[in-house]
Design goal:
alpha/beta, 9-stranded parallel β-sheet, 13 helices, binds 5-hydroxymethyl-3,4-dihydroxypiperidine
Length: 437
């Protein structure tokens, strides 16, 4: 077990940006014009869970769309200096080509309130959800559909830009199409990169704030460390989900297995910072069709009682991977854990911030950190995983900051922490339960 009480005291650089992150569909509620909302109403949504024991529609989520004024106060009271949020395209353009000015006014008010509190706002323009009409036209699967996103951004950007301190065009754009190779996946991957580049250049017309797209940075690891095939396929997985994107953004070369490479000057250099979402490491098993193998059983922490969220905490992966991103500043735009027992979150935070600090010491220009998530929220198919610094009662929508929120507030105030801080917030170490049967 990690001895978190003996962590050396660390300080972050002056001006380090401390904040938390959320996404519209996961907290707002009633996002009825989105493709996600539509999917949640279909019987197939419950295919793997006919009893509806874990799966649920987003419904009112955290009712943030109504309670946003209080949530701004909450963010400020927790000492956060920055906040990453997303704007729902499907609210602003619920019907193709028709703008909802009330929805726009809502977001402008939210942004203004945050800025008035001195909170730097990082805006994500596409966080997994988009209008149902766009999905029905083929979504990002069709390259030509980029024009709809362009039209939307051309409407939105001039209005919100003065309030934005940092941009993500797309959240986790490297996840689309998964790990696999070949001509069916490559066009989607290319299109996500080109959509990102389109957003990058459009934003530059209206804003001097830095722009990127968030990268889900998975640390791939061979399931059997000495197995040559597992090691080779680990490199392959890393290439298709990580290096392909880094190389393309650096050079404009879109080099993907199974298709001829393309060169796109619009993609080259279309970033001002690396935007890293880091959670855990994943095992690569060359003998499985999907490559995604089981994790080390002895390292699984049963944080919540459903299997798919068994997490393997691997903070050293953060240090190791950030070393690959030395050519631009880095912001950690998401990092966090889902845990019912808040003491796990304190341990997780302490170790990941220590790993981040180590990357700084190794010369990586890390400028900020956004904890995922500000509050417990809708985790795409379920309300069970609790990622929040703040607990939400999903009946009354009452917010209650957890001990980890107070721990994080002290870290922000002091711009650092040490083992002694952890000891004060973690009165007793949790007992680690065994793996799920
Ligand atoms: O909740 C998600 C978020 O929408 C994207 N990154 C990972 C988070 C936790 O699974």
């Amino acid at each position: 077990m990690y001895d978190v009480f003996s962590l050396p005291a660390i300080r972050f650089p002056e001006g380090f940006v401390w904040g938390s992150a959320t996404a519209g569909h996961q907290i707002e509620g009633d996002n009825i014009h989105s493709q996600a909302w539509h999917n949640e109403q279909q019987p197939e949504f419950y295919r793997d869970d006919p009893e509806r024991a874990t799966r649920a529609p987003s419904g009112k989520a955290c009712d943030h769309f109504r309670l946003y004024r209080d949530d701004v106060e909450l963010i400020a009271s927790l000492g956060h200096r920055a906040y990453r949020m997303s704007i729902e395209w499907s609210r602003i353009e619920p019907v193709e080509g028709r703008w909802d000015h009330r929805a726009l006014a809502h977001y402008l008010d939210l942004l203004e309130r945050l800025v008035r509190k001195g909170i730097q706002v990082f805006v994500t323009l596409h966080h997994f959800t988009h209008p149902l009409w766009f999905e029905r036209l083929g979504g990002f699967g069709k390259a030509d559909n980029r024009r709809f996103f362009e039209r939307y951004l051309t409407f939105l950007l001039p209005q919100i830009s003065p309030m934005v301190s940092g941009w993500n065009v797309i959240n986790e754009f490297n996840q689309w199409g998964g790990l696999t190779a070949g001509p069916t996946v490559a066009p989607l991957k290319f299109n996500m990169l080109r959509t990102h580049a389109l957003g990058y250049h459009l934003i530059k017309r209206y804003s001097s704030a830095p722009v990127s797209s968030a990268h889900a940075f998975i640390h791939w690891f061979p399931r059997r460390f000495h197995d040559d095939l597992d090691r080779r396929m680990t490199d392959f997985a890393d290439f298709t989900t990580n290096e392909f994107f880094f190389h393309a953004l650096r050079t404009g070369e879109l080099v993907y297995p199974g298709v001829d490479a393309e060169y796109d000057p619009e993609v080259k250099g279309s970033l001002d910072f690396w935007s890293v979402n880091y959670y855990t490491r994943h095992m690569v098993d060359a003998r499985l069709a999907g490559l995604d193998g089981p994790r080390f059983a002895h390292k699984l922490l049963q944080m919540i009682p459903i299997r798919f969220y068994l997490e393997e905490m691997y903070p050293e992966g953060l240090t190791a991977n950030l070393e690959r991103l030395r050519d631009y500043p880095v912001y950690i735009t998401e990092n966090g854990c889902c845990a019912d027992d808040d003491r796990f979150r304190i341990v997780y935070l302490a170790l990941h911030l220590s790993a981040l600090h180590e990357a700084l010491e190794r010369g990586v220009d890390v400028r900020g950190y956004f904890y995922w998530s500000l509050m417990d929220n809708y985790e795409w198919t379920t309300f069970i995983p609790r990622f929040g610094l703040v607990a939400v009662d999903f009946q009354t929508f009452r917010r209650s900051p957890k001990t980890s929120a107070l721990f994080y507030r002290e870290i922000i105030r002091d711009n650092g922490f040490g083992g002694e801080t952890v000891r004060r917030y973690l009165d007793a170490l949790p007992t680690l339960p065994g793996p799920v049967a």
